[in-house]
Amino acid sequence: MSKARPPIYFVRHGETDWNVQGLIQGWTDIELNQKGHTQARAVAAAMKNVPDFSPDFNFVVSPLLRARQTMGYIAEALELEPPQIAIEPAVTELGFGIWEGKPFWELKASPIYPPHPEDRYFWRPREGESYEDGHARINAWLDTLDRPTVVVAHGAIGRCLIAEIASLPRRDLVELAMKQGFYCKLADGRAEWFDATADAA
Questions:
Q1: Which amino acids are annotated catalytic?
Q2: Which of 47, 48, 143, 163 is packed most tightly, with the most Cβ within 10 A?
Q3: Mean pLDDT for the chain?
């Protein structure tokens, strides 16, 4: 059973052109595209209606541009001041090393990529990180939290958070869909997604 932790509101950054092209981003700094900006604005508007919201929440963002742009809309909607937002290296996307900028289908077709999802959890690309590495740094960061937290980060980070909070098996972690234009409430051992773009329609 996972540890009892304060509620976390996870937001994946909005869409980028590399997302559209199916390219592996990792630590590469890619900005939002037009749809990504629209998604980020929708999430920001939806988060104004989060029950029990308080400006005393933690607000945490990955150092990468696509996440910081997304958090910028949330900060504006919630009228946050810059000192309220922490740039947190622990929630940076997993590094994919030599595979960054290459199509994900090419990696999946490569003989070096494990065919079984559970094995992919431990697979580490050259000059990059495994999901096991990312999970370890996310768990260390989670142990520092003392109040509800909004975190804007990335797909692999969201998978690690959901796996930890909702006690998801490793074999399911790597294949878990990460949605853009949504936010996810992680609390009481559950992950609940909210479609912000539906509210904006």
A1: 13, 93
A2: 163
A3: 93
